[in-house]
Every structure is written in C-alpha cells, then in structure tokens.
Amino acid sequence: MSKILVVEPRNILRQAISLALFPDHEVQMSPLLSEGDAAMAQEFDLVIIDSAGLRATNSLSSQLVRAVQSWKVPTIWIDDAAARQAPVRDKLLVLNGPIQKEGLQSAVTKCLGALPSKLDSTASTSAKGSMATKEVRTPAYQNSGPQIIELVDVVAEPPESRKNRKQQIKTK
Questions:
Q1: Which residues pair with residue 133 across a beta bridge?
Q2: By the 8 A CB rule, do 7 and 33 touch?
Q3: CA distance 92 to 90
Q4: Environment class of residue 80 by beta-carbon count within 10 Å: exposed (0-12), middle (13-18) or buried (19+)?
Q5: What is the rounded CA–CA span in Å between residue 116 and residue 144?
Q6: What is the pLDDT of residue 4?
Q7: Whole-angstrom Cα distance, residue 85 to residue 55?
Q8: Roughly what angle, to the nearest 10 degrees, separates helices 11-21 and 101-113?
Q9: Three-state SS string across 97-133, please?
Q10: Which helix (H) or strand (E) holds 26?
Q11: 3-class secondary structure, 82
Q12: What is the DSSP letter of 4?
C-alpha cells in the first residue's frame, strides 16, 4: 500500500480524491502546503497538488512552486490549461482539470509503477533542458446537465373513462 499526500483546499474535492484512491492507497489530506510541510512531503510515495484550487484561494506561492521543483518524490500537478504554472522536473505529471476518477487513477498508477525516467515515453523537452513532463488530458463532462432516462410514458385519461374502468373492475 503506497502513501499519498493530497494537497487540496476544497473539502469536497479532498473527499472525492480520497474515495477515488481508497482502498488501494493510504491517503493523507492537507488543505494547504507550507514551506515547512514541503520536507514532510518527501516521506510519501506520491504527492497530488491541485494548483488550480490553491491559486483560487491565493495559497499558491512561487516559493511553493520552487519547493515542488526540487522534490524527488513523484508528483501529480492538477492545473487549468489557461493558467499553466507547473514546475518542470522529472517525476511530474500534469493533469488538466477538471479531472475524472479514471484519469486520476491511471495517473497514480503511472507515477507509482513507472521508473523515474520512464514516466512518459513521449516526454517533451523544455528550453532549459531535458526535463520530462506529461500532460494527461481528462475529458470534461460533455453534458451540461444530468441525463434523464424516461422509463414510462404517463398518459392522462379523461375522468369519464376512469369511472367506467372502476365499474368494470367491480362487476368482474
């Protein structure tokens, strides 16, 4: 069982990620990650950071980004495609939000099961060097609302036919 640290400021998403990873992994949640907590992150097998959520709560600092860039632990960085601020290093996967359960689980499996240099066979190189990063695109929900399935068509009968039906049932 691997130990995973999830840094997510929103309570409902912390629970959703925890349920998606349970029971295969031991998950510890944190709403924020300070510079002092960055050393603690090295004790885990994987760290998942929702940078979009941290940015929304003004909790994503440049010091935190630099700290994550120096880590050796595999990291999943969840970010919006529009606000790209992910650190560039080995053992880092970037997921575009919103994420889905299957996309998260496959990214976790890839990070925990792969060797550090083999996280992505099609690694992109940055202008600073050959730092491997990967973008896993998870599709957003296609429907704007819940899908409704009609099981039965309801047909309204005029009041006279209801009386006739009741009389037929009584006479039988």
A1: 92
A2: yes
A3: 6
A4: middle
A5: 39
A6: 93
A7: 10
A8: 60
A9: CCCCHHHHHHHHHHHHHCCHHHCCCCCCCECCECCCE
A10: strand 25-30
A11: coil
A12: E
Q: Under a CB-based contact definition with an 8 Å cutoff, are residues 83 and 60 in contact?
A: no
When the candidates are 3.40.50.970, 3.40.50.2300, 3.90.79.10, 3.40.1160.10, the CATH number that belongs to 2-141 is 3.40.50.2300
The token duo for 109 is: 């499996």
What was the pLDDT predicted at 166?
A: 67
Give the residue among 22, 19, 26 at the shortest CA–CA distance from 2. 26
Q: What's the angle, vertex CA 122, arms to CA 119 and CA 125, rounded to 5?
A: 95
Q: What angle do CA 101, 102, 108 make, to 5 degrees?
A: 90
Q: What does the chain come to in residues?
A: 172
What is the separation, in whole angstroms, between the first and last Cα of the chain?
Answer: 68
Rg (CA), the chain: 25
Q: Which pTM does this prediction carry?
A: 0.63
pLDDT less than 50: residues of the chain: 115-144
